[in-house]
Design brief:
Elements (H helix, E strand, L loop, with lengths): L21 H8 L3 H7 L14 H13 L4 H10 L1 H7 L10 H13 L3 H15 L6 E10 L9 E3 L7 E11 L5 E8 L4 H4 L10 E4 L6 H9 L3 E4 L9 H20 L3 H13 L1
Parallel strand pairs: 1-5, 5-6
Antiparallel strand pairs: 1-3, 2-3, 3-4
C-alpha cells in the first residue's frame, strides 16, 4: 500500500506561522530513523488506498499522549494548529487525518506489539538529551472514547456526576518536573486506576504523586518494587477553612497514634497505612 505524499508545500508556512514551539525543538532532538524503521512494516501491501505516512501518524499519537487529546480533539488540533502540523510533517493547507484514521493506526500498532516499543524509543532519546534531576513522577489516567460501542475490547465506565463512557483508559506516568511522559499503559475503561497503575510507573520513579484512586496495597507495592515512594493526595477533608481542616487532621492523627499504642491491631494497621502516605 502506497503512502500519501504530504508536506509538499511546507514553504507555504509564513514567518508568523513559524513562531517558536517546543515541538520544533523535539523534532530536532530525536533521531527519527530508528522509529521509521520500526514503522516500516505497516501498510506494506502493494495494493489498496494510499495510507497516511506511518511516521506522521505516530507523531500524532505522541501529541495525543503529551497533550491529553482524544482522537476527535487530535484531529481538530491538527486541522488548525500550525505547530502540530509541522511536528507531524503536514504543510499549512493540506488535509490531515480524521479521527477514524487514528483508531485504525492505533490498532495496527497494538496488533504488531509496536506501541510500547515505539513510545519508549522516543522517551529514551528525550531523557538522554535532557539534563535534569529526577524529582518525582506523576501518575494519572485519562479516558479514551471508543469509535463505536460495538468495540469488543472497550468497556463502559461511569464516574459520579458524569455520563457513562465506552472506551479505554490510558494510565500515564510523567516526570513531575518536566511533564515528560515516561511510561503509558492502555486498559479497558473499567479497570481500576490502582490496579493498572503499576504498569505506568517507570523504574526509579522517585516520589510518585497520585490522586486517591491509587490508594491501596497493589499500587503502593508496585511503586516500592520500582524503588519509589508513594504520595497520595488526601481528599474529602472536612472543615470550614484550611485552618480548621488542618486542626481536625492533627487531632485525628493523635487519636490514631494513641489507639495504636494501646495495642488495637486494627487501628495500628490503619495508622501504619496512613504513615505511608505522609
Amino acid at each position: 500500500m502506497a503512502h500519501r505524499s504530504i508536506g509538499q508545500d511546507c514553504l507555504a508556512f509564513t514567518r508568523m506561522d513559524r513562531g517558536s514551539s517546543s515541538l520544533d525543538e523535539i523534532v530536532a532532538l530525536v533521531d527519527w530513523c530508528p522509529i521509521a524503521e520500526l514503522l516500516a512494516p505497516l501498510y506494506a501491501a502493494p495494493k489498496g488506498e494510499a495510507a497516511w505516512p506511518p511516521l506522521s501518524m505516530f507523531r500524532a499519537m505522541l501529541l495525543a499522549v503529551w497533550y491529553d487529546l482524544s482522537d476527535v480533539k487530535l484531529a481538530e488540533a491538527l486541522d488548525d494548529r500550525a505547530s502540530f502540523r509541522r511536528f507531524c510533517g503536514f504543510s499549512a493547507h493540506e488535509p490531515t487525518p480524521e479521527r477514524t484514521a487514528f483508531v485504525r493506526f492505533r490498532r495496527e500498532l497494538v496488533s504488531r506489539s509496536l506501541d510500547q516499543a515505539l513510545f519508549e524509543a522516543v522517551t529514551v532519546q528525550l531523557k538522554a538529551r535532557a539534563i535534569r534531576i529526577k524529582t518525582g513522577t506523576i501518575v494519572d489516567a485519562t479516558i479514551i472514547v471508543s469509535q463505536t460501542e460495538h468495540d469488543s475490547e472497550a468497556r463502559w465506565v461511569k464516574h459520579k456526576g458524569r455520563k457513562a463512557v465506552h472506551g479505554f483508559k490510558a494510565h500515564v506516568g510523567a516526570d513531575a518536573k518536566t511533564a515528560l511522559v515516561e511510561r503509558i499503559a492502555i486498559t479497558p475503561a473499567n479497570i481500576n486506576d490502582g490496579r493498572a497503575g503499576p504498569d505506568a510507573v517507570p523504574d526509579d520513579p522517585g516520589e510518585v504523586f497520585a490522586d486517591s484512586a491509587y490508594r491501596g496495597n497493589h499500587f503502593r507495592d508496585g511503586v516500592r518494587l520500582r524503588g519509589g515512594t508513594l504520595r497520595v493526595a488526601a481528599t474529602a477533608m472536612w472543615g470550614r477553612d484550611e485552618k480548621e481542616t488542618l486542626a481536625r487532621l492533627k487531632v485525628s492523627v493523635v487519636i490514631k497514634r494513641f489507639l495504636a499504642s494501646r495495642g488495637d491491631p486494627s487501628e495500628g494497621a490503619r495508622w501504619r497505612g496512613r504513615r505511608a502516605f505522609a
